[in-house]
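Dear colleague,

Thank you for sharing your sequence with our group. We've completed the structure prediction you requested, and as agreed, I am returning the results in plain text so they can be pasted directly into your records. Please verify that the sequence below matches your submission; if there's any discrepancy, let me know and we will rerun it promptly.
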Amino acid sequence: MGLFQSSARYLTPFLLFFVLIPVLAVQAQERVRITYASNSLAFLVAFIAKDRGFYAKNGLNAELVRVQPGVAIAALLSGDADYAEVLGSAIRSAAKGAPIRAVSTTIRAPFFSLAADPGIRSVRDLKGRSIGVTAVGGTNYISTRLLLQHFGVDPEREAKIIPIGDEKLLYEALKIRRVDAVMVGPPFSVLLKREGFPLLVHTAQVLSIPFVGLLATVDKLRQNRSQVKRVFKAEVEALRYLQENPAGAAEVIRKRFAMDEAMARESYAVVVDAFSKDGKVPPEGVEDLLNLEKKEGLIAKSVTVDQVVDFSLGEEVLKEMGR
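Please find the predicted structure tokens below.
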């Protein structure tokens, strides 16, 4: 046996070891399905966690699936999805007894803008007009109602709120004058402003409510808490990346939304300050949402914040991360 053949006999297992390591690592990842409500910057943290490998780093093969908020809750309860990136709909469902809990929030306040037809100069001018939203029940819808109320417009009797779909459809609906105004976030609010549609008001100037967040079932929290913690950790790492790496975050925006670099950077600048630093759910913000639901008679007055949010999981993860 020659020297090369002798060496190859010993090298083959050695090489196989290094070939199999990445294969085994991929196989070891847990597959999880995470739903989100629309293709908008509201879900930038989940996009960063996916595209920059933070889910994978935490042993998760994450599939992101876009569905309407109501469908997201149903999919979660049926087991068709493991997690949902919604908050308003989740809190409402949990308050009505659904066995689900919010565990994090990635955005402290909504960053929508109310864009309108050029002939409309103020929110008050929307009396008797139509306003497009993504869907009934989501934070986009809730923000629209609260904003109208703030400026003295009754959302039930003095305006027509129309669910249209994701923000790209809202953008197109306003351009063809299907509606008189739309509630959108960047990049579509930026695009509409460039194209001559006035932005009447930014929700962050008026509202302070937790926006997008991670949702899981009570059973998932009990039976596979370690997995929930890894999803939470991946998103906290994505939040950190978002704050510390503007160029990298803008690149994710550019690719996800097929926009030029200048638009991506501008969109990033508009939204970055609205994002949470650590994913914690603010109790006072949830209390505000619950009070809104109670005022409208949609949930029992006895519902408390602890019935809709699991604060303990985030505290555990942040402690483990040394934050």
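Summary note from our side: Residues 156 and 285 are 23 Å apart (CA to CA).

Kind regards,
the structure core
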